[in-house]
Amino acid sequence: MKVRSPQPTRRHALLTGVMSVAVLALTACGGGASDSSSASSSSAAPNLADGGATTLTMWVDAERAPALEEITKSFKEDTGIEVKLAVKDFAAVRDDFITQVPTGKGPDLIVGPHDWLGTFVQNGVVAPVELGDKASEFQESAIQAMTYDGSVYGVPYALENIALLRNTELVPEAAATFDEVIANGEAAVADGKATYPFLVGMDPKQGDPYHLYPLQTSMGVPVFGQNEDGSYNADELLLGEPNGVEFAKKLVEWGDTGSKVINSNITGDIAKEKFNAGESPYFLTGPWNVPDAQKAGLELAVDKLPTVGDEDAQPFIGVNGFFISSKSANALAANEFAVNYLSTEAAQDAMYDVGGRPPALKASFDKAASDPIVAAFGEIGANGVPMPALPEMQAVWADWGGTELALIKGDGDPAEAWTTMVSNIEAKIAAQ
Amino acid sequence: MLTTAPPGPAATRPPKKTAVRSDSTLGLLAKIVLLGLVDAFAVYVLITLFLQEKWVILLVGAAVTVLVNWIYLRRGGLPAKYLAPGIFFLVIFQVFVMLYSGYVAFTNYGDGHNSTKDDAVNAIQLSAQQRVPDSPAYRVSVLEADGEFSLLATDPDGGVSVGTTGVPLEEADDAVLDGTGKAVELEGYRTLQFGEVLANQEDILAITVPFSDDPEDGSLKTSDGSNAYVYRPSLSYDETTSTFTDLETGTTYSDTGEGSFRSADGEQLSTGWKINVGFDNFVKAFSDPNIRGPLLQVVLWTFTFAIVSVLSTFALGLFLANAFNLPDLRGKRIYRILMILPYAFPAFLAGLVWSGLLNPEFGFINNTFFGGADIPWLTDPLLAKISVLVVNLWLGFPYMFLVCTGALQSLPEEVDEAARMDGATGWRIFTAIKLPLLLVSVAPLLIASFAFNFNNFNVIYMLTDGGPRFSGTTANIGHTDILITMVYEIAFGTGVGRDYGLASALSIIIFIIVAVISAISFRQTKALEDIN
């Protein structure tokens, strides 16, 4: 899956609207005093059920739900606390969480990618968690991703990043630089073994800066600057680095009017279909497309991300984790579940077994890494950077993607287009 | 006058009467059951409201319940009985939504201003609690004595201490340890089991044990009842002045009346709250350079899109309705069903499917109809507009087809016949007689269709997302953006996150435009009726 969350459609807005109306109509917010929530359970209740603490509600999207069903069952057996999984639409779950937590009708926990965190904190809907000594048992980048403004807000359970998939029948040897990749790919095309030298999925409206990011970082053009502790600094937009324009020129060179290595008409679905049909030796994608490629009978190798410039090709890392609502009435139980239970090796193993996403806990990851594909992706991810969770990132995606797409199509002057993009993004961030 | 049958025998009447009576008993029973269900639900809601102390809504709810009972229990007042449910749902799902949008338009509701000030203060305080670097992790048991909870903490070296809110940690050497060396019991206290900890979590999470007499050392808190850490807040909140002070740098963040805490040099704490901002959103709607720049082009295109969509769908729908209205056409039914199929297709799905069909290199349209030509259907400004109109035609004509078929069938045959007797041609019959008659019933629907297409978000958003983009603006607005998609981009796509307040203000402006146009048009349609 792609960690970048798609923008909600109007249908979602409408649904949210209708739902919030229903909620408002029933719970009637804004009417009375604000001391409503605390009144119910302040007296000491000896009985577990009387305290209302026996159930937790967790929002999860359909893709992540299967991995969690087993684990919630065993949590109930161990502690008697039932975790109700409410399966929600991925495109809407983040916004619903933000709108419903303040009404007191939100869930206790939510599962999602770490780059939601900035918006969550901005809206005050998540509470920090203290992992204590367990923090060191997780991969460093996972904890770094879950940290925002100096506090850790989520319990990570899986990491994802992209890599270069290679069809070993078409190109037997790994390449280090993108030029070599192109050369190998074009050789395969020239031999008549393949139709496309290289594949990467492009959204027809937004391009795909997420997938092209390693190429960009290898030229020394990250999105934001990083502080000493690894967190991103929104005031330091680095897209405007001098090499940015060089990257823009490269995009034109690779694009529709150039060598057509990157084709703006190839969407993610088309790219997957062509790669699985053996029509290209290379596919720049994530682990989510590996099972189908294997099913299609391809001999796969997971190569390091190719470089264009002299620097490392760093992919974005997406970290999935559990967040606790700041208004959870069951915060203690939620902490028990997220911090003490889901962080155990057994739990992370189980989630990997069902969900197939590389675990964030080191011990579990090492076990999962017996699969060479997982190991290879993990190795590449160790070199990556967390996707920025800053709310400012929302202002970046549309311009960044749109400009890259235009350059790939060969529209406009690369230097001018790139500088305009940078100044547009700066203006948007400043307009806050 | 012919009397076809004599009046029925008197004997048949009594059973009829009893049937009516049993019907009304049944009716009464149904009424009691339904009203009982409604009342039961209302009482449940009212009790919940009472417990939550929401007095205003409680009163409104009670009044509505009484009103509903009065309407259905009294004799007579039949119209009210029919209208009440409709009005009830109209109020909840239409009037309330509109009023709420109106209210939101005057607030700064959006990302960063999501809830009340209390919630924001709470969230900031939660986030400001940071663990003292390199402080030990404690294992704790929760103790209870005289209804007050304490924490029994075991540090990593095995030292045991006890304390509670306001009572600093003190050593407790006589505590009973379990197998792992964790203190679990202390004389004079009762140790809580996990279930009890859960049941009293609110109080236990609130325990803040000062680490020592010096507040600088921080305090011990637990978030799960079994582990505790030493926290020290990085910000302190002063309720009387409603300011946050950064304990490290001494910077004060105060409530500047903009729904957030700001320091003197403009730095802002990340979580803010919802406030009323008066007409700010409307002022912004008219002064934002992102809106003003492309506004004229977008407005022109919105009108073009709406008008052409209405006319093209109506023309095609009417043509097909006429064609399939021929009495001697075979298989009419099957054709009609096929015609209506696109109507059953969700618009946003159709948008996605069409954007695939129109893919220049791999799309069906170019490959099949244009011999593999590379026509940029969705990325050339003019072609993109044409594509949007064609796709909307495909989506919209079945509705017009349905409406026109119905209207044509309701036209009296005699008029047709009379015209033919007078020697009128088919075309003349259509233009001089059928069309004007048709327009009387269809014109209001055309206006409704215009209003719908004026705000046809799905087709634009899913097919082109407004692209190709204008070169001159900062915002992500393009050649096929209509007003409503532009509003979406401006309110949700610029700055940092979504701005519901601005979105509501802009929607209200659009609503006014559409309302005015519709009102004028409806007035015009009265003239149509006069002709006939």
UniProtKB/TrEMBL annotation, chain A:
Gene Ontology molecular functions: carbohydrate transmembrane transporter activity; maltose binding
A single BP term in Gene Ontology: maltose transport
Coiled-coil positions: none
Family matches, as Pfam families: SBP_bac_8
Keywords from the named record: Signal, Sugar transport, Transport
Record's GO cellular component terms: ATP-binding cassette (ABC) transporter complex, substrate-binding subunit-containing
Signal peptide, first to last residue: 1-27
Top-level division of the source organism's lineage: Bacteria
Family: Belongs to the bacterial solute-binding protein 1 family.
Protein known as: Maltose ABC transporter substrate-binding protein
TrEMBL record, chain B:
GO biological process terms on file: maltodextrin transmembrane transport
Topology of this chain in the membrane: Multi-pass membrane protein
Entry's transmembrane regions: 26-49, 55-73, 82-106, 298-322, 334-354, 386-408, 429-452, 500-522
ABC transmembrane type-1 domain: residues covered: 299-521
Region forming the signal peptide: none
GO MF: ABC-type maltose transporter activity
SUPFAM superfamilies found in the cross-reference section: MalF N-terminal region-like, MetI-like
Keyword annotations of the record: Cell membrane, Membrane, Sugar transport, Transmembrane, Transmembrane helix, Transport
Function: Part of the ABC transporter complex MalEFGK involved in maltose/maltodextrin import. Probably responsible for the translocation of the substrate across the membrane.
Family to which this protein belongs: Belongs to the binding-protein-dependent transport system permease family. MalFG subfamily.
UniProt name for this protein: Maltose/maltodextrin transport system permease protein
